[in-house]
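Hi there,

I know you've been waiting on this one. I reran it after we fixed the sequence typo, so this is the corrected version. Both the input and the resulting structure follow.
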Amino acid sequence: MLPNDFFLRFIPLLLGLSAVTCTSPYYLTLVSPGITSESRLTKQTDLRMEEASFYGSWAYSHTAFYINQTQLPKVLNDPNNAVFQPKEMFLLKESRDTQSHILFEYCYDKTKPIAIEKDMKNYRFQLNGEDPIENLVYLYPYSYSKKGKVFRKRFPFYERLAHPNDKILITNGFDQLYCVRTLLSFDKTKEKQGLNRFTVTTPRNQHLFYEYEMREKFVTFKEEEIN
């Protein structure tokens, strides 16, 4: 068999694998002011089975992002912040050069009987073994598409159009996927040059671990990830 014939036989298989990957219920595309996929922390543990049984196996996901100092105002001024809570609570948050900022987000099935307001306050966080200086916890909505039991997270509930059509629209979706965001501030002197470890302890005492690297500045996330 010629090498070219061998390669051509595998093209349908490769296309099939690509289609399955892209339609995974856990494949996320994040679109949010001040947050990009490259600012994600590297997930070391998932514990999907334990937490998903509590939050709903099809809707549950967890992600962490490093928030650059210059991007923090965009995160705080995101129009979606005011969907479930007053805008004033975000105005109290100040940007300080002496702090590092990490945003942790998890999503849940709102049809499950969860006391989410109580649950969201019982998470614990550490960066290199140190507790945060302060945190800001809030609900954040996304639109999504759904086919059968498969969810695909799409856009934040509110989306701002580009100039010159600079206005806020409500994105299309069958319904809203609800997520909880925790914006954390840490003492910047506790951040290491090299590898840093971010730890999340859930209310069920499960431990989620993330890592990121600093070389004068945050080393951006280069690989796409199936959650």
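Quick highlight: The chain has a mean pLDDT of 76.

Best,
R. S.
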